[in-house]
Automatic annotation (TrEMBL):
Record-given protein name: Histidine triad nucleotide-binding protein
InterPro entries: Histidine_triad_CS, Histidine_triad_HIT, HIT-like, HIT-like_sf
Motif interval(s): Histidine triad motif: 98-102
Pfam families: HIT (PF01230)
Gene3D superfamilies: HIT-like
Annotated HIT domain residues: 5-114
Domain of life: Bacteria
């Protein structure tokens, strides 16, 4: 796998607003947030896409979700709710070929939009 912006962030060659780091993962604020809270959780091991996850990567991928939940609790939005999603390849919206978990919170994210659900219920 070639160098990506994420591998450069892991190597501290490119600055990022890091909010969590351990031996397995790194979490940092998204530079183009799509919600009031939007950060990425990435593995330090380079894995290009979801399709490239191997059996021995299961703990790494589970760890990414654990980190997301830990940060959600620490930042106080876990109970209100959030979205955690990975994109895969071009049609899935993936732009950086190093798997990354998007975590979005701070506003209603469901479908139909929250205001429309209120009218229905």
């Amino acid at each position: 796998m070639s160098d990506t912006i994420f591998s450069k962030i892991i190597a501290k060659e490119i600055p990022a607003e890091i909010i969590y780091e351990d031996d397995i993962a790194l979490a940092f604020n998204d530079i183009n947030p799509q919600a009031p809270t939007h950060f990425l959780v990435i593995p330090k091991k380079p894995i290009a896409t979801i399709n490239d996850i191997q059996e021995n990567d299961r703990e790494i991928v589970g760890h990414l979700y654990w980190v997301a939940a830990k940060i959600a609790n620490e930042l106080g939005f876990a109970e209100q709710g959030y979205r955690a999603v990975m994109n895969c390849n071009e049609f899935g919206g993936q732009t950086v070929y190093h798997i990354h978990l998007h975590v979005l919170a701070g506003k209603p994210l469901g479908w139909p939009p929250y205001q429309e659900r209120l009218k229905i219920e």
